[in-house]
Prior knowledge:
The chain is α+β, with helices and mostly antiparallel strands. The chain has helices spanning 58-70, 140-151; strands at 18-27, 30-36, 45-46, 49-51, 73-88, 94-109, 118-125.
Amino acid sequence: xxxxxxxxxxxxxxxxxxxxxxxxxxxxxxxxxxxxxxxxxxxxxxxxxxxxxxxxxxxxxxxxxxxxxxxxxxxxxxxxxxxxxxxxxxxxxxxxxxxxxxxxxxxxxxxxxxxxxxxxxxxxxxxxxxxxxxxxxxxxxxxxxxxxxxxx
Length: 152
């Protein structure tokens, strides 16, 4: 037996940010949020979303991710903002950079059911969202406010 241990293989950092979508849905003065199961921001509340598949439009990706993560059927209306999400470890070493494109979607049917990459999914009252003790992902409150202004 050899005392030598195999070298740990480290994958190189991506050369560029990954583009992904976040789907924002409002219904009866409520916003749909999911509690994320995976990094970045595992355990925090944010929007359903994920990476855009090669050849998939932004709008199609938003509708697909809504159904996969929250069981909601919707129609994509418009892109309205973009935010950065940095996946860092406890030493603040950057492992991945995502550019999240926010898509405003209109609810058609379905009630929130956690699926795919979500631990929980539910509607939150817009009037109490910022007053709650929810562990929100960075920029969620800002994006909710921007989207709610468009819907109003």
